[in-house]
Specification:
By secondary structure, this protein is of the alpha/beta class. Helices cover 39% and strands 16% of the residues. The protein has 25 helices and 22 strands.
Amino acid sequence: MVAQRLTGAEIIVEYLVKSGVRYAAGIPGHGAWTLTDALLDRSDEIRSVQVMHEQSAVHLADGYYRASGEPMLAFTSIGPGATNAVIGMATAYVDSTAVALFTGSTHTSMRGHGVLQELEQRHHADNPRIFEPVVKEWWQPSRVDELPFVMHRAWNAMRSGRPGPVLLDVPMDIQAEAAEVSIPDPAEREARGRTRPDATLVERAARLLAGAKRPVIVAGGGVISADATAELLNLAERLGAPVVTTWNGKGAIDETHALAGQTIGDTGSTIGNALSASADVLLSVGCRFVDWSASSWRKGVTFAIPPTQLIQLEIDEREIGKNYPVAVPLVGDARAGLADLLDALGPGEASTSYGEEITKLRREWEQQVEIKSGSEATPMTMARAVREVQAATLPDAIVVTGAGLPQGMVKQRWVTRGPRTHITSGGFSTMGFTLPAAIGAQLARPNAQVLAVCGDGDFLQTMQELAAAAILGTPVCTIVLDNSGWISIKGGQQTHFGRPAMTDFMRDGAPYSPDFAAIGRAFDVHTEFADVASEVRPAVERALASGGPSLVHVRVDRDLAVAGPDKTGWWDVPVPEGRPAYDDQARGRAEEQHR
């Protein structure tokens, strides 16, 4: 390594260049001026991306990572700019995505004096402690010559083991001052390779799988992040085991494959829940068994562990046995662990014989899906709208969702063909995620069709990022499924409490929606409107063909009977005593297996 005299900001940028980072997204407040100035000098290698809200910068970086497997930088100024990014970091943390966030911080000589935008009443320059629950690690260097060490430690923490977001809170004077430093080679400082599970335990797991009559594989987001889909399919075919998927595992197997058992959980599929609940041996890969994917752990709805025996392959040992007892714990990388299991099984034919049952369950699920997805009703069902949107796309199109009915509807009904093409704020279920994350996915995969499928409430939270898309020229197609309210929340209130509260957007006694087509035109993006099902596909096709950012406003039915995805599992939401749903919830809670 050759020593050179660099400012703190130049050190950061040089390390990003060495690490292959191509984009940095943020808002250039005064706390980040020195960084944005240093980025100018390396603009051929790293493109600076403007967003309109700091939350969106992190969501954009999150979507970029999920679509590509490579991290980028998000940056903000000091104070409110930084705290605006918390929700994005929480989303990335819960879903285990690698995001690096740079925030400006108080100059070291002024710490604790209450400079502009400093938090200091309890501890000087205290902003990073707001982020502590939502980052893997955070750093606040006090000297310029610390930065090379901090950078390789941060990149190592972010990408190794279970990926996750990290925070660099860099004082303004440390960004500006210079020192003689050597920039580390990432190849010599970062963890490479894959952690393999214990060989003895792999052999035990292989014997258990080989003797299973009804094996099922549960694919979580860890399969996608480990690039383990090929190994997953090979093992599934060797065993004759169907593969069911969680929110973030969707795409781990082509959903047209004969062994695709579709999604599981509260808003999963009937086939997925039936197969996983009746398995004698369950192999979970990169799956946390959260409430939405496990039907709040109610026995026999999505899982029954026991009597089902669980083999859990997981990179994070803290997840092993957290919610269910484990027959064989396998701590290791999903790709390496699946390859080892396949080797341990050796060549042979699948010993299971319930392929006809899988086919029958799939046919029944398809018939159920058709009721809403094939509906000719006016206003159109959201399910029909989603079907028409997908009909306008290529098989490898990327679909992005955030919170609300579109998230569950896409999970149930969008036919996902490959990994990194279904991106959703799964564990944190964040509103406002969809559009900025889709912009990030489009930057990562510029030749792919990228669709941001959002409800009106979700879109209204970060619609300002249409400006970011327009400035960048990214051809993201934003689909606004408009039902004039928080209808997902309304449905839950009606089911569990018997009456809704504060969920309908009403004016003068009638449902209210802004003119989303006019909003699109105001941002100077290609705009379409569809009021009936037959208009949706051609509208989306025209939007995608426009070559630039676009918005398609689709008005959908808001009637709770047809508005949302089919409820196929169970969700434990506390209900006040005396309400109609109270007894049913109490009975269901008594059957939960996580305690």
